Amino acid sequence: MSSPAKPPQNPQAIAIAKAIRHNPLLKQRQGLLNPVKKIDFFRYKRVIRALLSTEYKSKQQRSPILPVIANEQDAMKYFIEVIKAGLVYPVNKLEVSVAREKNLPVERGFPNLEIDPKATLQPDEYYLWNYEIPNPYALLYGVLFLAAVFGLILFPLWPYKLRLGVWYLSMGCLGLLAGFFAMALVRLVIFCATYPILSPGFWLFPNLFADCGFFESFVPLYGWGNEVLDPKSAKLQEWKQKKVQKAAKKEKKSKEEEAPSGKEILPSSDKKVTTTGRKVLLEEVEE
Q1: What family is this (predicted)?
Q2: How crowded is residue 154: how many other Cβ atoms within 10 Å of its Cβ?
Q3: Residue 273 in contact with residue 260, Cβ under 8 Å?
Q4: How far is the C-alpha of 113 from the C-alpha of 110, rounded, in Å?
Q5: Alpha carbon of residue 229 to chain centroid
Q6: How far is CA 282 from the centre of its chain?
């Protein structure tokens, strides 16, 4: 099956597609086409809601090329223009069993799609996008890339101090990279050494290779076995809460130790404080 053709030039249809391409009311998903290309698709009833949304109306007021859409009939009319322009295509979402019968790769969360030659405009009919909004920074990125390549080619002509600074910077980056791999090797050695005697094994920085932020990769400091804590999991949040409570108890204990020796804090619920010892000391001073 060939990929959808490139859309012909239709300024109004392109403007409509651009206005609703990333509208949240579409509730777009990604599916597989031809047979592993991931592409966005949506239901027909969702695009009608997007064309009647306040977001589209606000864009229409700022762009004269966008048509006024007052009701569902207008939305259907202009969506047909988008279909004729080749910016969207009707598709069928295949069941897993059907996809396997057709020897298509099955990937969880990405249903297989098949282009339908007819558009029936039914509420639950699926359509895929054959249009992407051009990146306004693509030209700038291209110019910067060419400038960087040209600058690297002229590296021998750079001033000596600048070349020396680049050399030190590159050595520093290589040192950090080598330290990271050394740490990964050390944690693996520790796990292999502790697994036979302290099963299920000790991990240093269990989230080091987890799908999380840089600083979250080093939290917690250690773990056991395959129990790698997700930085957003409830278990790690509980671990952080226990750590805070432990610090609070330690601070409370230190404050109690710093309290005057004449005062005694009772463990009763009303937390009454007796000052008998303090009175004795004052009487001795008065005498």
Answers
A1: Belongs to the SEC62 family.
A2: 9
A3: no
A4: 9
A5: 17
A6: 66
Q: 231 and 212 in contact (C-beta within 8 Å)?
A: yes
Q: What digits encode the pLDDT tens for the residues 222-276?
A: 887 655 544 445 555 565 677 677 777 777 777 666 555 444 434 444 444 444 4
Q: Which two tokens stand for residue 223?
A: 């773990």
Of 121, 38, 120, 112, residue with least CA distance to 76:
121
Alpha helix positions (H), the chain: 11-20, 44-51, 54-62, 72-84, 96-101, 138-153, 160-194, 234-257, 276-286
- Integer Cα distance of 271 and 248 in angstroms: 19
Distance CA 9, CA 250 (A): 71
**Strand 37-43 and strand 88-93: pairing?**
unpaired
Judged by DSSP in three states, 58 sits in helix
DSSP track, 123-156: TT-EEEE---PPPTTHHHHHHHHHHHHHHHHTGG
Distance between CA 2 and CA 215 in Å, rounded? 45
**Cα–Cα distance, 277 to 215 (Å, whole number):** 51
Distance of alpha carbon 270 from alpha carbon 53, whole angstroms: 60
The Cα 23–Cα 269 span in angstroms is 58
Task: Determine the 3-state secondary structure of 207 from DSSP.
Answer: coil
d(CA 21, CA 161): 50
pLDDT in tens, 87-132: 999 999 999 888 888 888 888 888 999 999 888 999 999 999 998 8
Sequence letter at residue 285: V
pTM for the full model?
Answer: 0.52
CA distance 192 to 199: 10
Helix (H, G, I), strand (E, B) or coil at 119: coil
